[in-house]
Amino acid sequence: MAPTAQAIAPDATATFTASPELTGVDRVRPGDRETDPAAVTTTVDGVQCWQMQNDPYVRYAYVDVADEVIPEDATRAVITVDYYDVGTGGFDIHYDSTSNPWTGSRNQQLTDTHTWRTTSFELNNINFANRSNGYDFRLNVKAAQGNMPPVCFSGVQISFTDAPLAALQSLAIMSPSTIFGTGEAAIEVATPAEEVTWQLNDSQGVALETGTTAVTSGDASIDLNHLGVGYYTIDVTATINGEPVTRHASLAVLEAPPEGWDGDEATFGAQFHRGWQPDAETEALIDAMELAGYGISRQATTWGAIERELGVYGFEEEGVRVTTELNSRGIDTMWNAGLKNSLYDDGRTPASDEAIAAFAAYAGATAEYYSSNGITHDVGILNEYNSSGFNNGSCGLTPACYLEILEPTSAAIHGADPEANVIAPVTAGVQLAWAEDFIAQGGLDLIDTYGVNYYGYAENGPGTPPEEGTDLMDNLPQLVQMVRAEAPDMPIRVTENGHPTHTAGSTQAQQADQAIRALVLAQAAGVDEHIWYDLYDDGFDPGERENNFGLINRADATSCYKWICPSVEGYEYGAVHGITPKPGFVSHATLIRQTLGLEQGDRDNLGSDSAYSFPYTDGEHTNRVMWSTGSDYVTVTSADGFTLTDQFGQEQQIGAGDYTLELTGSPVFVGGEVQIASASAPVQVEVPEQVVQGNEVPVTVSFGRPGPLPPTVLVGVGDVEQEARVRPGGQATVMLPATELLGEREITVDIASAQDRGRPWTQHAGTRVRAMTEVIEPFEVSVRPRIASTDGGFEYALEVSIANNSTTAALPIEEIDWSVGGAVGLETDVTDVPAGESGTVLIPVADARLFTNQSYDVTVTASGQVKTDEGAVSFSPIEPADAPTLDPIDLNDIGQWRSIRGGVREGAADLGGDLRFTSTADALVMHARISDDVHLADRADPALSWQVDSIQFNTYDLFPTVLGGERVEIAASLYDDGPIVYTFSPPAGQSAGLTPGAEADIVRDETAGTTTYDLTIPWASLGYDGPPAGVWGLSFLVNDADGDVVGADARSGYIEWGSGVGGAPKDPSKFRTVQIVGLDGSA
Question: Which parts pass through the membrane (predicted)?
């Protein structure tokens, strides 16, 4: 009999009624003001509950768990909540944890179904000591006063457990880390099932092994200690309630780091943020760094944490602990001095004489601490001072201002530690003009190592390769020459550089390539040391750049750690409770092992701009790292054979003779005494452009080389080797095993004669060529809002498109299970989708709420497989400008206030209003009547309009969550000299500046406290030939500046309709979905 998931028995319960019923709970309370439970108690569908309300404002329900039911060593609690689902916001739990009394849980989305529902929150690192306003936790509905939906809570159950909920009820991978030394690989799992099955895959997702492992007392260990060096993935499955539950994780196996990795020859390093993850993850990261062989690192030791009282220094800060631990492992870690302290200059970057002197004193005291304790001598001075992102001081961003801080700080550090290695200026970007000024003013005399941060990952669009980065390829070599001209022996260290893997960034496979190529090219530019940013993902949002710089995936979580929360759109809990490698981590480990202790030589001349080959040698042994930005063939000739190593450390011994190697974007290493020459392709490899997930891949090899061909050849792809007959005409075909890994799949083909099992044919040692295919799902589901004009107005529907990617078989649709807003349904009479075609199903939406997001969830079952598309859409018609019929968008109702630096909105008169977008055949028309009690727009430069009272809107020419579209951003403001309309992000072929063809009538009424915007923006200025068809993206915000904020950015906050504009980076996936209606040719 298959195991079933069991509910956890509660240790305490609370029923929310007028006279609450409590078991194992001391007290409960609605709201912050000792509200009487009877005042919020109501009955919904026969159930008594506490209803959240606007007047008086009640958004919380507090719970104090009785001390006697809390286990002494409890670290985890599960809170089960019964609630009436109404509204479209969400709620979470604030709880007393070991890090602070207001730690957040995940978010529970409200979907406005008007039904009773139950959900469970898993709280980690609990510290139920009544520090949350005298209670242990509170339910928190996320709605401002005036916008509170009538959510009702009927009660909670509290359970204490040592294991994650997934481990108790389904399946969890529990290994603290899946980065292993050779002979140590084992995947720890927890499940109520009796056994787990598993499949181990190579780096391309091709199955290598399968197995079954018994579960004892809820735990099992999958023994993989026989694995060799490499990057792998594993799928683990348990059967729960008769249904399979599968967890997916990556893993790495590495040999011990090479001798000397922790010595003076260390060149490569990585950094992570101290205190941004639980201690267990920090320790796992340090273990991983040591195993990889990173010899250098960087950690902050912040001024505000060291000097909490004037002139008093304490060294208990997390950065000190982590820096000490890293150095104890042999990782030479620079501590970064910065950035500000609330005791000086109002918490801004130091600029006054007093603040600069205090900063220098803190830096000297900290240097003395690290030096006297034998920890480190390396120190960086501030971070990206030349950028407003890290410098808000009153002096400015200039080298002269920086030198005012650097001179006394360097003196204090060198005075405290004669062996100090002062690393500066740590600029944002290479910034040649800034660097030239810095050097001219004597900056090099104050430092020991020149430090610089630069990035180029998006210079020419998402996933820009290193070879296209202006800073890396053009500016960095010039900087090296400038520094060496004045200080020939001064080391140069890249203190930050990386390639993020967010949705609009590099793929993880691309990052793995870039992780090698970027470091090798930086060395070729003259850099001595390179620290990768970042080792570990800083958050959970797959679309957020700053969350995804890591070479290691963040462990899955069910609650927040400090401010880092899993409640973000797009994050899927995978029940993998430890750190797991991205392939780029293994690429770095391989590069370290291939180059440590060797000196880089000049680039080999292969007669091709796209072919890169750099030798590393110590005079006795040479390794080469080789790749191409296109596709290049080389002949590797050796008298004694050589070692061919891929980017994941897997080696292949190649015999003497000529070996033809195709170079692609994935680097390889050639070790031994060889000669390299350009070559033509001896064979051609053909694979389909796309292959359906789970299908074999036909690989056809065509021999173009003249002369006799062997009757059969060995075709090896990864660990799979097949013998194939060479047909007349010189072709051989093999079938490559299927992979479940979606996305680009690189197929590396090794070819040798089958006669005598791989001996040379036609005097050739062998051939390695590569080809790319894309693995796609068997079918895909996409959902779009659809608005159709009728005589009486508009009809609204969800348009469900089902694409059958099979080219050979029709797709029988079994059912479509859907929900949108509060409506649910099941469609069973659906026409099959022919092979290679798409089908569409319309689901009417009777209660579409206009201009605001509605959650949807559409699940299609076809051929025994299930595909889901879920998210949010808005039904937002853009009517003809001469005949609008719908009410405008009420910003006071559906707009969202976003505070900047703690700014407060004091009601609709402070900032509010309404908004309407309409259209003509030639232009997008916007009318906004904004209530604003103070109008401030004291700028001259239109490019600074965002800093003051203004509006901004963005368009996106595709459905918002689809990548590859064009985003255009426009702002408007009423300056003292009159209206301005400015394009910040122009369409292709246009430039930032005043918006071409824009018409603006902006009127301020001081008596009424309103500013009225009437804008007409030509479609051409938004990148369109005319009114766009279909569904596209639009987002709007209005900025509020009342003159009470110090600094260049005078805003206290903004109200947005849609999102993704006010923060950085811009995120079209958060835009509203809009559609033009009523014009000729439109819906």
Answer: none
CATH, range 167-254: 2.60.40.1220
Predicted local confidence at residue 761, as pLDDT: 41
Q: Please report, for residues 303, 359, 424, the alpha-carbon distance to residue 365 in angstroms, rounded to integers and kept in the order given.
A: 11, 10, 18
Candidates 98, 17, 120, 99; CA nearest to 61 is: 17
CA distance 736 to 687: 10
> Which pair of structure tokens corresponds to residue 1018?
């030509």
Asked if the model's pLDDT at residue 1080 lies above 80, the reply is no
Tens digits of residue pLDDT in 191-203: 999 999 999 999 9
Q: What angle do CA 948, 877, 1031 make, to 5 degrees?
A: 90
Region 107-123: what's the mean pLDDT?
Answer: 91
Distance CA 289, CA 283 (A): 10
**Looking at domain 268-595, which of 3.30.470.20, 3.30.70.2740, 3.20.20.80, 3.40.50.720 is its CATH number?**
3.20.20.80
Rounded CA separation 883/297 (Å) = 63
- Confidence (pLDDT) at 1047: 64
Every domain range in the chain assigned CATH 2.60.40.10: 681-775, 779-874
Identify the three-state secondary structure at position 15: strand
Strand partners, 774: 690, 744
* Residue reference for tokens 């703690």: 902
The token pair at 151 is 């959510």
What is the C-alpha to C-alpha distance for residues 882 and 350, in angstroms, rounded to an integer?
56
- Give Cα separations from 697 to 123, 206, 224, 720, 957 (angstroms): 45, 11, 27, 13, 35
Length of the chain: 1083
From the centroid of its chain, how far is CA 1065?
Answer: 11
Listed in order, the ranges of the chain carrying CATH 3.20.20.80 are 268-595
3-state secondary structure of 583: helix
User: Following DSSP, what letter does each residue of 501-513 receive, concatenated?
Assistant: -STTS--HHHHHH
Q: Which tens digits make up the pLDDT trace of 15-55?
A: 999 999 999 999 999 998 778 999 999 999 999 999 999 88
- Cα(271)–Cα(534) distance, rounded to whole angstroms? 6
Give strand ranges (E) for 497-570.
529-533, 552-553
Supply the DSSP string of 96-124, one letter for each residue: -BSS-TTEEB--EE-----EEEEEEEEEE
**Region 817-824: what's the mean pLDDT?**
86
Tokens of 609: 């701009």
Please report the beta strands in 444-485, taking only residues with DSSP state E, as ranges in sequence order: 449-453
Nearest-angstrom CA–CA distance, 425 and 448: 11
**Please, what sign has the CA dihedral across residues 1063, 1065, 1070, 1075?**
positive
Buried b vs exposed e over 724-753: b needs ≥16 C-beta within 10 Å? bebeeeebbebebbbbbbeeebebbbbbbb
Q: For the domain bounded by 600-680, which CATH number is listed?
A: 2.60.40
Q: Tens digit of pLDDT for each residue in 990-1015?
A: 999 999 999 999 999 999 999 999 99
Rounded distance between C-alpha atoms, residue 451 and residue 496, angstroms = 9
Candidate CATH numbers 2.60.40.10, 3.40.50.2300, 2.30.30.100, 3.40.50.1820; the one for domain 681-775: 2.60.40.10
Domain with CATH 2.60.120 in the chain: 12-162
Q: H or E segment at 358?
A: helix 353-372
Give the separation between CA 488 and CA 544, rounded to whole angstroms: 41
The CATH architecture of the domain made up of 12-162 is: Sandwich (2.60)
Q: Alpha-carbon distance 832 to 11, whole Å?
A: 51
876-1076: CATH topology = Immunoglobulin-like (2.60.40)
How far is Cα 701 from Cα 200, in angstroms, rounded to an integer? 28
Q: How far apart are CA 146 and CA 169, in angstroms?
A: 39
Dist CA 377 CA 422 (whole Å): 8
- Helix, coil or strand: residue 992: coil
Instruction: List C-alpha distances in Å: 185 to 115, 209, 230, 250, 1025.
Output: 47, 14, 11, 12, 58
